[in-house]
Amino acid sequence: MIELETPHGPARAHVNEAAEPVAVLVLGHGAGGGVGAPDLKAATEAALAVNVTTILVEQPYRVAGRKSAAPAAQLDTAWTAVIEQLPINGLPLYVGGRSSGARVACRTSAAVNATGVLCLAFPLHPPGRPEKTRLPELEQVTVPVLIVQGESDPFGMPPEAPNRQVVRLKGNHSLKSDVNGLRDAVRTFLGRGNDGDVD
Questions:
Q1: What SS3 string covers 122-165?
Q2: Mind giving me the DSSP string for 75-95?
Q3: Which pTM does this prediction carry?
Q4: Does Hydrolase show up as a keyword for this record (predicted)?
Q5: Per-residue pLDDT tens for 108-158?
Q6: Residue 110 carries which DSSP code?
Q7: Measuring CA to CA, how many Å separate 189 from each of 20, 80, 111, 142, 144?
Q8: Are residues 195 and 50 in contact, defined by beta-carbon separation less than 8 angstroms?
Q9: Which pairing describes strands 11-16 and 2-4: parallel, antiparallel, or unpaired?
């Protein structure tokens, strides 16, 4: 684990190095959760299986012990500052996260020059409020996007698009019900991008 300074206080990066890395995946956590979430753990395992170094980032508000998420602009600024300090070493950079972390990755994908974006349980809208859509955050991404979404997620089901694949799994926003399906989707997405062996 490494601690990195950001304009909003220190963040933490938990580095899981691949044996022979072909790319780097940086993942953020949800608004109220941490980097130990089951879907982040499964995504990390899947990425390492195709030689993608995975770095889990704890936002400064979590490091400071606060439960409530910081405003979006602060999350984005801290995330970008962390990525600028990470040892990417010229490898292709994938960014992503679960829920709120996926939103941050989408909003900043161009700024960090990402190769692709991995969204776990993207919160398309607040529960019961489909009119408050966050679809523009997805639509601003210009690189390939993989969304892994629970079929009964109360935060909605994002639509597919030419550059955006949606894998629907059994379960809800936690993505705990089909961990193997999640691993397969992530492995295929990352492996295809790097000509990796995805068997």
A1: CCCCCCCCCCCCCHHHHHCCCCCEEEEEECCCCCCCCCCECCEE
A2: HHHHHHHHHHHS--TT--EEE
A3: 0.95
A4: yes
A5: 999 999 999 999 999 999 999 999 999 999 999 999 999 999 999 999 999
A6: T
A7: 18, 23, 22, 16, 9
A8: no
A9: antiparallel
CA distance 112 to 144: 15
Instruction: Give per-residue pLDDT as tens, 53-112.
Output: 999 999 999 999 998 899 999 999 999 999 999 989 999 999 999 999 999 999 999 999
Which tokens in the block code for residue 154? 């109360």
Rounded-to-integer distance, Cα 151 and Cα 140, Å: 24
Domains of the chain, each with CATH number or no CATH:
2-193 (3.40.50.1820)
Cα–Cα dist 24/94, whole Å: 6
Yes or no: say if 105 and 127 are a contact pair by the CB < 8 Å rule: no
HEC-encoded secondary structure of 157-187: CCCCECCEEEEEECCCCCCCCCHHHHHHHHH
- Give 29's DSSP letter: -
Structure token pair of residue 134: 């966050």
Distance CA 144, CA 78 (A): 23
Nearest to 69 by CA among 79, 54, 82: 79
